[in-house]
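hey so i finally got around to running the thing on that chain from the lab meeting. sorry it took forever, my laptop kept dying and i had to restart like 3 times. anyway pasting the input first so we r on the same page abt which one it is
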Amino acid sequence: MANGNRAYWDVKRFCVASAALAENGESITYTNGAMAWDLIGVSITPNVISAPHTSETGGRKVRYKSLGADISVDHEPETLDKRALLFGHTMDSGSTKELAYGIQDTPKHVGVTFYRTLNDDTYEGVFLPWAIFSEGTAEAQAALEGITYSTPTTTGSAEADPTGNYQYIKSFATEQEAISWCNTKLSISED
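ok and heres what got predicted. didnt touch it at all, straight out
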């Protein structure tokens, strides 16, 4: 099948890991990586700025520069430990497992991986090395006339890593190869 005719028909295994920039600023290390959500959908939209100008020969030119990407993730509700990881809240490590929201809490940078199943029975891994998410609105409704189902959406941005890249994509022949690549990128032990 021609590469331009492939369609995505499933997205799986959205994993996150704490990301820390090395002191020399040349690499990122990942810890505490695990699957974050059961996915419903992911959207990655590049942020591009443009600057029109007149060239030396008098013609009009437009220069473009990519600044990263916006991320929107539709998912099952995140667990309390993932809220702590992503948004900087404090998780009680004792028996209560209580999550505390503080006024000084700030979102933390994470590495992100997931893979997509393609209609030609191949797989495509996606790695966002330096991402940050913002906490969305929490909503709960009483079931007066019926039940309302809502899918949580978490938004964020993919920023450039020390080499200037904000996204890596790789194709695989098998699902296990895609899972292994995702795990390797975030230093996740094979499960």
